[in-house]
Amino acid sequence: MTVEFDGRVARSGWALQVDQLAIAEGVTAVVGANGTGKTTLGRAVAGLDRLERGRLEIAGTAVDDPGAGVFVPAHRRRVGMVFQDHRLFGHLRVIDNVAFGLRRAGADRAGARRQAVALLERVGVDPKAWQRRPAALSGGQRQRVAVARALAPEPEVLIVDEPLASVDSSGRASLRALLGESPARHVLLITHDPVDVATLARRLVVLDTGAVVSRGSVAEVTASPGCEWAATFLGANVVPGRAQGTSVTTEGGLALTVAEEAAGSVYVTFPAHAVTLHRDRPAGSARNAWQAELQRVDIDGERARVHLGGPVQVRADVTRRSADELDLRPGLTIWASLKATELTVVT
Q1: Nearest Cα to 254, choosing from 332, 336, 344, 198?
Q2: Are residues 180 and 265 in the same domain?
Q3: Can you name the residues that pair with 23 across neighbouring β-strands?
Q4: Given 17, 47, 60, 288, which is the most exposed site by the fewest CB atoms within 10 A?
């Protein structure tokens, strides 16, 4: 089963043009700068925006084809969507928001509520909130309810738009796990978070100025990102570890000093350009330094992306001139360093 998208969605003074995009099963992350069309792509798949021209198929069936006069409305598509602003029904209690799709599908009230309770427990919504209306909940709790509501009818396609943006740190790991285990055969993950990409995505779609500029596996798109924004975004290193105070120990045993205190399982993120390379152990203000094995050097114009192995698998961006001066080549053992202020801790 695939989602096949080949068409154009027009808005006032702007349009999204998607050419022959096939979205396979699993989690596909949709990334791009603000205003590039990520949410519009999701809304078109969900049936909330119509194609001006072209064709959109889900599981081999056309759901939007203006030339043939075909348009399947949103409520008849097996598609669930979690919006950035939640879009919960303000007049319904939390439990009935989650049960809404099940009731529309024909479930009786008691059965729909039993399934809603199971989902609310799974996403971590406080039982005291189940009988409240959404306005009484925090932003993070509303987001959890929105995820539960989208999952309740067991959609074939689940679209989640910045799903963790308003969720507190204690809930991010559980929601990531839930999205990664979603029963939906396709998950379109619209995100600006490199941790989401590193931990959830099997494939990537990059949008720029209303068009798809790169698509494929995470490795393929990282190697050919298609635009400067994506090159910077995909250059972010994401390293798992355990934090205690201002120290994070990675899975490879490297202790990194960070600028903010944390505890428990975390991810440390930092851009590729923040990693400095040296032939000898560095001296100076960098609090973190380690020896690494140089695995590969990719030259792109005046930039060199260096892939490092060792206690952590990371990428470093240096100038081509620096790469030449350091005589960087596969198999070389080299020192890498990072300033604590360059590291961000994500729970």
Answers
A1: 336
A2: no
A3: 3
A4: 60
